[in-house]
Amino acid sequence: MMLHEIAEATKGFLDLLDDGQRATAVGTMADDLRTAWAYTPGARPGVVYGDLARDQRKAVHRLLSCVLSPHAYAQTTAIMALEDVLDDREGGTRDRHQGDYWTVLLGEPGDEPWGWRVEGHHLSVSVVVADGRVSATPFFLGAHPARTTYRGRTVLQPLRLEEELARELLDRMGRTARGLAVVADTPPPDLKTGNARRVGDLDPVGVTPTQLDRASRGLLVGLVRYYLDRLTGDLADEEFDALDLDRLHFSWEGSDKRGAGHYYRIQGPDLLIEYDNTDNDANHAHSVWRRRSGDFGEDLLAAHRASVWHR
What we know:
InterPro entries: DUF3500. Strands 1, 2, 3, 4, 5, 6, 7, 10, 11, 12, 13 and 14 form a twelve-stranded mixed sheet that branches. The protein has a two-stranded antiparallel ribbon with strand order 8-9. The longest helix is centred in the N-terminal third of the chain and has 20 residues, at 70-89. It has helices at 2-15, 19-25, 31-34, 54-65, 70-89, 160-172, 175-181, 214-228, 233-241, 279-282, 298-309, and strands spanning 26-27, 47-48, 101-106, 114-120, 123-130, 133-135, 139-143, 148-150, 153-156, 182-184, 249-254, 262-268, 271-277, 285-290. It is α+β, with helices and mostly antiparallel strands. A hairpin with a 7-residue loop joins strand 11 and strand 12.
């Protein structure tokens, strides 16, 4: 059912495009398009959200909502809207707007493999479909400002739980485990993998589940599950069931004081989660969930090619 909904939402979007828009929106599964991603401002391949008609914009949201869980969809729409808030704070000097998000199709439903990406500043959602299976990493969400306040109280913080659940884990673990988890006093300026097309060699560091008490292990697993639950129902369950939870590593870099720069990473054999909030006086957050073997559907495409070759 989930795959059917994704395909129908994609076809619905395509049907609303005129010939010129369709030529701009539809690309191929070629590596140079499929794996070229970014979370910084700037134009992307595809059709830009701000230039679409109302029904076409709603179709883009349908693409997102049929893949994302309700809370992640709400985060996504808030992140897009923050572009106008940031533009106002900057005095319009960089001409940001919540319409600056692009949708590109990687082939079309019915011609497997196929997929799509919705992307712009602080948002990248990539979907690849092959042989009835769905891949949706890298999955990036960011926010600037990360936190908007009124008299010291939070009004809007799209990535609040990404921070709070990690702080709860760090606070809950004992002194010995915390000494293992905190691996640097100074955080990196951004995600260590950036927008690399491959995760590459990043040594797992920090504390492992066997070094945590039972409650802390549960918090670590819960934090991982929260990231995977950016996807809806069955998609998140499939990703979670594939994890080797006993081989996770959790590490923290930077200060544990609120309002100070910090970074954390969770790694498993095929899992990478990164969170960084250092820029703009620690009010500019980035977060990403990646799969070493499966980003951009690499594992699905390899299996598809093997099955086609052996037919």
